[in-house]
Amino acid sequence: MGKGLAAFAAAWLATMGIATATPAAPAWSLLPQPAHAYPAASPAVEIADGAVVAVHGADRPQLQAIVDRFVHLLADTRGLRLHATTAADARAAITFNIDPHADVAGGAGYRIVIDDQGIRITARTPRGAFYGSVTLWQLLTPPGWTRGSAAEVAAGVIDDHPRFAWRALLLDSGRHYQSVAEIERLIDWMSLDKLDVLLWHLTEDQGWRLDIPGYPALTKTGACRNAVGLDAELTGSPDQPYCGHYTAAEVREIVRYAAERYVTVVPGIDLPGHAQAAIAAYPWLGVTGQRPPVWTDWGVSPWLLKPDAKTLHFVDDVLDEVMRLFPSKYVSIGGDEADKQQWNASPAVQAQMHQLGLANMDQLQGWFTGQVAGHLTAHGRTPVGWDDELVAGATLPAAEVVMSWHGNDGERVALAALRQGHDVVMTPQESLYFDHYQSSLPDEWPGQPPMATLRQAYDTVVIPHGASAAEAGHVIGVQAGLWTELMPDFARDQHALYPRVAALAELGWSPAAAHDWHGFLQRLPAELERYRALGIGYADTAFAPAFDVTAGAGDTLRVALANQTGFGTIRYTTDGSAPTPASTAYVRPLTLAARDRTTLRAATFMPDGYPLAAPRMQVLDAATLLGRDSSQLASCSHQPGMRLGGRQPARGPRPVYTMDVGDMCWLWPQAPLAGVTHVNLSVARVTWRFGDEAKDAVVRPRVGAAGEFEIHADSCTGPLLARLPLTPAAQASGQTRLGAPIATTPGNGARDLCIVATGDPRDGQWALARITFSKGNTETGVPQGERRTGKR
Ligand code: ACM
Question: Does residue 413 form part of some domain?
Answer without folding.
Answer: no
